[in-house]
Design brief:
279 residues; mainly alpha; elongated
């Protein structure tokens, strides 16, 4: 029997885990469609509330506080990034719990595959989902509402991809909590609501109190949302956003290392205490 090792084996392992995630979305297309629809629904909800409360002065008040009159594009960019973080954190964080409930977690852990490869493979599927969210939600909105900025979508997509890396690290962190606490769903929903509040999804972060802005600065979505808005709505370039990109790259290095370290520590403890056998 032929055995494969080294880089080639790792690539085949990642490909297998990746295709498993893709099959999940293709066999349950309702989940995928919902992910594409929700950003539009949230944006229209916020737009309707603002128009109702602000009345005739709503658009002018919005422009004075955000620097743009294009409310829909401004809000849809925030909604798209929020939905991306929602998908990544939930997929990576809850994946181990799903495997446990299906009775396949033990087989995965006994397989000759490193835990890091397993978590990264789960994350790769979300790159495809993120691309779909960007093309359908952001691409179509900009094409209809702001066609002159359509060429700016490429650098905006680059920002979104860079922001995925620290999100994967946050997902690793939640995966460790799942091993420990078993019931991640309420916790992850709460965290996703906090993401929407802290990252300026529907309003500038500067509206938040100073101490809350400090917390916002630790979240990668804050920089992704702000930079994508500057690129699409203010025609800024990646070079002009070097400062925030540098911070985002630093977070992209720190969060995966921290998240995986916490996960491994909690997993080792669960192996000693028998947490894996508890549902």
């Amino acid at each position: 029997m032929q055995t494969i090792s080294g880089l080639r084996a790792t690539i085949k392992e990642l490909a297998a885990i990746f295709w498993k995630g893709i099959k999940h979305y293709t066999r349950y297309p309702g989940n995928f469609v919902l992910v594409l629809i929700l950003p539009f629904l949230f944006t229209l909800l916020i737009f309707g509330m603002g128009a109702f409360v602000g009345g005739a002065d709503a658009a002018a008040n919005f422009a004075s506080r955000t620097g743009t009159t294009n409310i829909i594009v401004y809000e849809i960019l925030g909604s798209a990034v929020w939905m991306t973080s929602w998908v990544v954190v939930e997929d990576v964080g809850v994946a181990l719990r799903d495997e446990q409930m299906k009775g396949t977690l033990e087989q995965n852990f006994l397989a000759p595959v490193s835990r890091f490869t397993l978590l990264v493979g789960m994350s790769l599927t979300d790159i495809v989902i993120t691309t779909a969210i960007f093309v359908v939600v952001v691409g179509l909105t900009v094409l209809v509402m702001l066609p002159g900025s359509f060429v700016s979508l490429f650098p905006a997509f680059i920002m979104l991809l860079v922001g995925l890396v620290p999100l994967f690290g946050i997902g690793f962190l939640f995966a460790g909590f799942v091993v420990k606490f078993k019931e991640p769903y309420v916790f992850i929903q709460l965290v996703n609501l906090l993401f929407a509040t802290l990252t300026g999804t529907y309003y500038p972060v500067t509206f938040l109190p100073r101490w809350v802005q400090f917390l916002s600065g630790a979240l990668p979505q804050t920089y992704v949302i702000e930079d994508m808005r500057r690129i699409v709505l203010a025609n800024q370039t990646l070079v002009s956003l070097f400062g925030s990109i540098f911070i985002l790259l630093a977070l992209a290095l720190a969060y995966p290392i921290l998240g995986y370290a916490v996960y491994r520590q909690l997993e080792k403890r669960a192996s000693v205490t028998g947490e894996f056998s508890k549902y």
